[in-house]
Amino acid sequence: MEPKTFAIPVRRNLVEYGAISVWWGLMLALVSMGWVSPILLSCVVVLGCWTKTGLFGAENMKQLFEASRCNMQHHRFLLLMGINMTQMVMSFAFDFHLLYCINPESFTGITKGVWQLEALFDFFYLSTLNFSFFGYSDILPQTVPAKIVNLTEIVLAFVTVIFLLSDFISLKDSLRNP
User: Fold this and answer.
1) What would the 3-class secondary structure string for the chain be?
2) Which of 24, 25, 103, 124 gets the highest tally of CB atoms within 10 A of its CB?
3) Whole-prediction pTM value?
4) Given a cut of 80, is residue 162 above it in pLDDT?
């Protein structure tokens, strides 16, 4: 019996990029209105971060098992995980940006009065460094919510890279040879 193929879900991934962006846009609007206390907004960002982290982790595990079961080629699996990783980096960059908009003292290393697009780029930079385990950044979290989100990203990156990517081949082999 020939294994079924596993296609990269392009439409679903585009919807996920859209959902991440919409969440960020809605939260940014809520922050700019000033109707909700900064402490509550920071808590919502952290809870949203944890929720997205759980969803990312579950989706990655599901895709790992499905790709292994379908005998997906390693380079296609890496492409799929690369797409997932860009979603995670984008999501955390948006969370960092939200925390910065709530309280500019949340991070050091961001030039005061910088244009918002430049600040957003700086948070993509931070998120990419966190996810790549580069281990150095001139942007540092200063508040508890910023440290929690930063730590959450580092743990998710570790789990994704170490457990998912490194175990794909061995999992694939174990499912093939019961």
Assistant:
1) CCCCCCCCCHHHHHHHHHHHHHHHHHHHHHHHHCCCCHHHHHHHHHHHHHHHHHHHHHHHHHHHHHHHHCCCCHHHHHHHHHHHHHHHHHHHHHHHHHHHHHCHHHEECCCCCCCHHHHHHHHHHHHHHHHHCCCCCCCEECCHHHHHHHHHHHHHHHHHHHHHHHHHHHHHHHHHCC
2) 24
3) 0.87
4) no
